[in-house]
Amino acid sequence: MAKKAETPPIYCVRYGSNLVGEMAADRERISELKEGERIRVDVRTGRIPSRLRFYFAFIRDVRKATGCAPTDKAFHQAIKLETGFTEDVIFRGHIIKVPASVSFEEMDEQTFGAFLQEALAFIAREYGIVPEDVEHAA
Q: pLDDT tens digit string along 14-58?
């Protein structure tokens, strides 16, 4: 069975009690709705892409400096396991922990912020490296 195509989200900015499309494309899609039509809005604050880019750049630098994992992805998975950002899976009658996703769809910004703090603390404890060390080296 073919997967139903998802409609991309419309991003808005709040002004008082009004939500206004953030970009021209968002406002154009809103203008296609009938005036006075009731619509459903699922409110989620947006993720901050630069924080996610910072995290992946930082773990890449730590991995290269320490040789702690064969790939950035493997190191990322280990960090999620160490920090408890996992999901329980029943496997052969046992509950095992698998790394959870940090994707924009699966993790809101507040949860990602908590994960990031835990990840930075783990890396500082385990490898003695903090973001300032990498920033100064660059």
A: 889 888 988 888 889 889 989 988 888 877 667 788 899 999 999
Query: DSSP letters of 2-17?
Result: PPPPPPPP--EEEETT
Q: How many other β-carbons are positioned within 10 Å of the β-carbon of residue 85?
A: 20
Counting every residue written for the chain, the total comes to 138
How far is residue 5 CA from its own chain's centroid? Answer: 22
Q: Is the pTM of this model over 0.85?
A: no
Tokens describing residue 18: 């009004």
Which SS3 state, helix, strand or coil, does residue 96 take?
strand
Q: Are 26 and 9 within 8 A, CB to CB?
A: no
